[in-house]
UniProtKB/TrEMBL annotation:
GO-annotated molecular function: 4 iron, 4 sulfur cluster binding; coproporphyrinogen oxidase activity; metal ion binding
SUPFAM superfamilies for the chain: Radical SAM enzymes (SSF102114)
Protein name per its UniProtKB record: Heme chaperone HemW
GO biological process: porphyrin-containing compound biosynthetic process
Location(s), subcellular: Cytoplasm
Species for this entry: Rubrivirga marina
Purpose: Probably acts as a heme chaperone, transferring heme to an unknown acceptor. Binds one molecule of heme per monomer, possibly covalently. Binds 1 [4Fe-4S] cluster. The cluster is coordinated with 3 cysteines and an exchangeable S-adenosyl-L-methionine.
Main location: cytoplasm
GO annotation, cellular component aspect: cytoplasm
InterPro entries per UniProt: Coproporphyrinogen-III_oxidase, Elp3/MiaA/NifB-like_rSAM, HemN_C, HemW-like, rSAM, rSAM_sf
Family from the record: Belongs to the anaerobic coproporphyrinogen-III oxidase family. HemW subfamily.
Domain Radical SAM core per the UniProt entry, residue ranges: 1-235
Lineage top rank: taxon: Bacteria
Keyword annotations from UniProtKB, A to Z: 4Fe-4S, Chaperone, Cytoplasm, Heme, Iron, Iron-sulfur, Metal-binding, S-adenosyl-L-methionine
Amino acid sequence: MAGLYIHVPFCSQRCVYCDFYFTTTRRDEGPFTRAIEVEAERLGHEYQGKAPLRTLYLGGGTPSLLTPDALAAVVGAAHGHFDTKALEEVTVEANPEDLVGPEGADWLRAARALGVTRLSLGVQSFFDDDLVFMNRAHDAAQAEAGVEAAVAAIGEVSVDLIFGVPDQPFEHWGANLQKAVRLGAAHVSTYSLTVEERTPLHKMVALGRVVPEGDETLRERYLFTHEYLLGQGFEHYEISSFARPGHRSQHNQSYWAHETVLGLGPSAHSFWRETRSRGWRWADVAHLGRWQGLLLGGESPIEWREQIGPDELADEAVLLGLRRLVDGLDLDVLERDYGVDLLTDRRAELAALEGAGLVDVRPGRVRLTVEGAAVADAVALRLVG
Ligand code: SF4
């Protein structure tokens, strides 16, 4: 089984922290949906039989900027060229401002009719100060109304929130979590504000106009989030992801379980697990015009492609498995599928990490503790390579 990701690159404005591929200047849906159809046909021709879809995920960018007709064309391209008989989950990312008012209601009705089972909302904060700082297109009232409308129309809603916005009072972060829960989100993803290169935020920091929050503040917020959402009945099942029981993101779990996830759209990445010891990763060109031109001209839109050998696959399995805080890294699977005996190969590192309270080693499993999850990258790097 596999997942299919479709990248919709349109955005109404540029959020200061964003380093995804998107465009605010072009929103010509005709060529985009035609190119998606062509790419779905190309990829489906090769993988339809090998990769029946379990999940479909439209991300971006801002898929909720697609008109209902364009949304139908994109979802239809997946159904038309892949085996979707066993499809369990169809997620669409949406921004709150697109879901309010009569147009928002129309869009939600269309999404529901197309079989969308889950919406992932880029809320980031329910406070105007934070939203203005991040240059989000919505305000606090739209954030709240958008979540309400999504929950009423689709039911299954994930809310993305960002912590570590400079000078954000601690109470605001607590109130953000509280509001997401009160509004009925069954899933919450929380991310710290990260200063990525080539973003407006990077420039603001370089010019000294913004001072990022320190590690200790971020750690406190992270631990608070864990405590608060567990207290509300959520499970902390992945480093950044919290879900009510039965409401995990199936699509994202495919990435963390190292399963095949194919991608369509400009900048989309694909991972094809061909055999236990061989995989392939590739990415489409990250430019809407070039990507469309290649596909509509009958050429491949792939910018690079690499083969992944057994050692690299094994390292990836460790890094991804550690992200799963509840399920943990399955040591039997690691040995059976990747030939790695972590308990023997990394005995000293595991003992040191366990002694520091960063991992929990049980028969057959290694899990990050919440303290370990707060510094997950550093922990994981001690167990690979
Ligand atoms: S809406 Fe999302 S993809 Fe678009 S600029 Fe903002 S964070 Fe990036």
